[in-house]
Specification:
Layout: E1 2-6, E2 9-12, E3 17-24, E4 32-38, E5 45-50, E6 57-59, E7 67-72, E8 77-82, E9 91-98, E10 113-114, E11 118-123
Parallel strand pairs: 2-11
Antiparallel strand pairs: 1-3, 3-8, 4-5, 4-9, 5-6, 7-8, 9-10, 9-11
Length: 124
Amino acid sequence: VQLQAYGGGLVQAGGSLRLSCAASGRPVSSYTMGWFRQAPGKEREFVAAIRRSGGTTHYADSVKSRFTVSRDNTKNTVYLQMNSLKPADTAVYYCAAGNSILSSIGTSRAYDYWGQGTLVTVSS
């Protein structure tokens, strides 16, 4: 599967953005889909994920109640709706797909395919 993330940009603190991750080659419903981010000088960190089976969602504590991950199988796309953005959310955001992920859903090495990143900048 090939993944392409887009939708990043510059937004003021308190604003919203929706990131999209378009998949080609295989249905996104075949994978557990995750979002990660990497801020300058920091390691890549887990943001959110939606499981292949059942669509259960998982979030990092830092984004819980502000971000929402969803999947549109008809468009073969996964979304990350980001509300109440903070300057600390500034990072390059990546989407990823995993074939078989159980307890390691928040671990980047559990994912098999990665899209290119999209930059989100939140100004104060």
